Amino acid sequence: MTQGYLSLVLHAHLPYVRHPEHEKFLEEDWLYQAITETYIPLIQVFDGLERDGVPFKITMSLTPPLLSMLSDGLLQRRYVRFLDRSLELAEKEIKRTGDHPEVQPLAQMYFDKLSQARDLFVDRYHKNLTQAFRSFMEAGHLEVITCGATHGYLPLMNLMPNAVRAQIQVAVQTHEKFLGVKPSGIWLPECAYQPGIETFLQEAGIRYFFLDTHGLLHAQPRPQHGVYTPILCPNGVAAFGRDAESSKQVWSSKEGYPGDFDYRDFYRDIGYDLDHDYIRPYIAATGERKMTGFKYHRITGTTDHKELYQPQHARSKAAAHASDFLFNRQRQVHQLAESMDRPPLVLAPYDAELFGHWWYEGPDWLNFLIRKIALDQEVVALTTPGEYLKRHPKNPCATPSASSWGHNGYHEHWLSGKNDWIYRHLLKAAGRMVELAQKYPKATGLQKRALNQAARELLLAQASDWAFIMYAGTMVDYAVKRTKDHLIRFTLLYKTIRNGKIDKKWLGDIESKDNIFPHIDYRVYL
Predict the structure, then answer these.
(1) Residues 6 or more apart from 511 whose CB is under 8 A from it?
(2) Residue 258 in contact with residue 232, Cβ under 8 Å?
(3) Helix axes 130-138, 40-51, angle to 10 degrees
(4) H runs (alpha helix) in 97-242
(5) What is the fold of 415-525?
(6) What is the distance between the alpha carbons of residues 454 and 3, in angstroms, rounded to a whole number?
(7) Burial class (CB within 10 angstroms; exposed 0-12, middle 13-18, buried 19+) of 500
(8) Which residue from 268, 324, 346, 399 has the highest number of Cβ atoms inside 10 Å of its Cβ?
(9) Mapping DSSP to helix (H, G, I), strand (E, B) and coil, where does residue 7 land?
(10) How far is CA 350 from CA 216, 246, 436, in A?
(11) Where, residue-wise, is CATH 3.20.110.10 in the chain?
(12) Where exactly does CATH 1.20.1430.10 map onto the chain?
């Protein structure tokens, strides 16, 4: 008999990167790698479960930038080009490794996987993977939720409430446009919360959101059952807290499963290992080396000497780790159920890109876990937050604590000496956007186009990804440039709208570059 529930939540998000002004752009690879290594493998797992009649329920957030990029014709065509180049490299690798029988099967493995990915992307889903996720949602397997419109860090917008509202309202509108239904839940960007955000969620029709562990544990009053039941904010919107134990087993590179010696080493890539002249057509146009996705070694240990990757050993380890994870959840649920007046819920949220991209065997682990839950036991059942609330609508009432899942649990990851300079500009721009919406509430024609584009530029500048990258110290120049470019475009739009001298040609140019949210209405800032 089921004693409790496990809710797996996969947060699928990438910043909006689209550069039609360049034939090739390095940062667009973020999307192409995620499609190849995470989104398609997850779809293949879901396909297999559905084909075999294995029941499963997973929650996924598909953020508005990701939905927009997956549905963009230019990026779809460029992804096919990326796949074809990767397949060309795979064919060359099969030939190059012909005298190395221990390596050639790995090259063949990549060729086979890339071929399967191309068939699925081009032939089955006609280049639009949004349709794949929508089909699993409509079949009842996925509960798809939203995020902020551009993953904006909401607590640091609190001086401009209209900016918080716009991030949420545009997200809900975009979700409905691509998936046909309004979202019932939201993954708050970076799980960042401060009291009052739930007001905007309720206004948008959102029923629940997620917090890091301490966001619930420090709630007032403190919930009796900790993070193992949701709490209801005073306005009735539910908050679910992350279970630290299940997260650590998967997240931690030192103590968690992804760091196992038999798993594929993410950082050892032929883009850095092979002769430059040979690999040059498959790295950056500048000749700078980059990841190709072809990795022939396993983690091995804390050593520079890496042993060759052995897929069957890694797959067996993924099965063992799935069994271990389930055993621990059974034990956990059994202990919790003895002291609770309702079945406990263990919430296990992860970045979707962990599965396949960072942890190559992650999709296999997920596949084994879901099948074991469905077929090998009855203690734990999979559910979604929405379903749990339907079964158990009465929950403790409390106000969550301000929190995030960034470094040290609050806001310092996005408000540090490396990135704090952006916020005075973002707040100024948000105030100006509200001013424009109030001054021109009935704009038409060119003026309306300019106002809508100003809203897009502001939203794109607010993406938390740029502050995150600045803090982390990776691709900092690009993150700074993106922040400044959108703010400069917004400021020029503001000035030309105010003085009535809108440059139609220039407006058309930036509309073609920053074309996210084609149906946006600037009056969302009223």
Answers:
(1) 449, 453
(2) no
(3) 30
(4) 104-118, 130-138, 161-179, 197-203, 213-217
(5) immunoglobulin/albumin-binding domain-like (1.20.1430)
(6) 52
(7) exposed
(8) 346
(9) strand
(10) 18, 10, 39
(11) 4-71+128-244+343-408
(12) 415-525
Per the listing, tokens 């509108």 go with: 173
Residue 342 DSSP code: S
Helix (H, G, I), strand (E, B) or coil at 122: helix
| Pair 86, 42: CB distance under 8 Å | no
DSSP bridge partners of 144? 60
Could you tell me which residues come within 8 angstroms of residue 132 by beta carbon, excluding any fewer than 6 positions away?
A: 43, 125
* Angle, vertex CA 110, rays to CA 247 and CA 286, nearest 5: 90
Per-residue pLDDT of the chain (526 residues; tens, 9 = 90+): 899 999 999 999 999 999 999 999 999 999 999 999 999 999 999 999 999 999 999 999 999 999 999 999 999 999 999 999 999 999 999 999 999 999 999 999 999 999 999 999 999 999 999 999 999 999 999 999 999 999 999 999 999 999 999 999 999 999 999 999 999 999 999 999 999 999 999 999 999 999 999 999 999 999 999 999 999 999 999 999 999 999 888 987 678 999 999 999 999 999 999 999 999 999 988 889 999 999 999 999 888 899 999 999 999 999 999 999 999 999 999 999 999 999 999 999 999 999 999 999 999 999 999 999 999 899 999 999 999 999 999 999 999 999 999 888 899 989 999 999 999 999 999 999 999 999 999 999 999 999 999 999 999 999 999 999 999 998 999 999 999 999 999 999 999 999 999 999 999 999 999 999 999 999 999 9
What count of Cα atoms within 13 Å lies in the side-chain half-sphere of residue 271? 16
What one-letter code names the amino acid at 318?
Answer: A
Is 424 buried (19+), middle (13-18) or exposed (0-12) by CB count in 10 A? exposed
> How many C-beta neighbours within 10 Å does residue 73 have?
9
Q: What's the rounded Cα separation, in Å, for the pair 174 and 170? A: 6
Q: For domain 4-71+128-244+343-408, which CATH number applies: 3.40.50.1010, 3.30.420.40, 3.20.110.10, 2.40.50.140?
A: 3.20.110.10
> What's at 279, amino acid-wise?
I
